[in-house]
Amino acid sequence: MKKYLVTVLALALGMTVMVGCGSNKEEKNELNVQFVPTNNDGTMEAKAKPFEEYLSEKLGCEVNVTLATDYSTIVEAMSSGQVDIGIMPPAAYVQARNEGSAEAILTSELQDYDLETGRPAEGVMSGTFKGEILVKKDSDIKTLEDLKGKKIATLSPNSASGYIYPVAEMKEAGIDPTKDCTLTTVNDIPSEMISVLNGQLDACFVFEGARYVFKDKFADNDIMDELRVLYYTDGDIPNDAIAVQKDMDSELKDKVKETFLNMAEDERGKDAMSLWGHKGYTDVSETAYDTIDEYTQKAVN
């Protein structure tokens, strides 16, 4: 009986090692994952639970998924080691990368959009996107220069499309929005759009295709018609990064990478990716993210 119990215990311990999530420091039994929600209406929390279960099953250990309150908190969470895997907006990833606390293992693929119609370009994926400046359809704002003296909704200063790229390019055009306009930071993109629709603010900074992505949230408005694109950024913004702690065990890192690469192959994986509008993942090119640094310097100087 003693031999039998020892054998069973040994097998159990062996299975624990097999399903555990490793790190260079110690064997971990859980992983912490965080992402920045595209809206803050409370719906994303419920959708995060199936993603948590999906990753737990695929990675063979307990996974905790949390939502960052804004772009800066996910950087802080990576820097402090509280988060092992970050699904990171481009500018947030670059900040964490520059601090030495994150390594991108993949970059996301997004639906490409027809810049004339603002609607999806069917069957076309892209590794980059542009920023948009939206105004009301009947607004007398026709050019970037017309934004001088106007009130503009922005996202966090750490957002590439919601702040950095449009601010940098407005400065290049001779308008400093931090001085010549009134900038108001808003929690999410739907709230930005509402502020323009109701006339509270004159324009907003969003990402390419935002009207189409959020159109179903506006039951009383046809935002594809009521809002128009004043300006697309010249600069292309690299997509979100799947980033991990730099000291993550290489075997676990490969397993995380494989899991994300295979998400597009099953319905549960596709549902998970829909949280951020991702259509798939590809190998990362760090040089693509270097442009974020260049634009950030233009925006802050």
UniProtKB/TrEMBL annotation:
InterPro entries: PhnD. Residues 1-19 form the signal peptide. The keyword Amino-acid biosynthesis does not apply. Gene3D superfamilies: Periplasmic binding protein-like II (3.40.190.10). One of its GO terms (cellular component) is ATP-binding cassette (ABC) transporter complex. The keyword Protein biosynthesis does not apply. GO terms for biological process: transmembrane transport. Pfam families: Phosphonate-bd (PF12974). Keywords: Signal. SUPFAM superfamilies: Periplasmic binding protein-like II (SSF53850). PANTHER family: PHOSPHONATES-BINDING PERIPLASMIC PROTEIN (PTHR35841:SF1). NCBIfam families: 3A0109s03R. Belongs to the phosphate/phosphite/phosphonate binding protein family. This is Phosphate/phosphite/phosphonate ABC transporter substrate-binding protein. It comes from Candidatus Fimicola merdigallinarum.
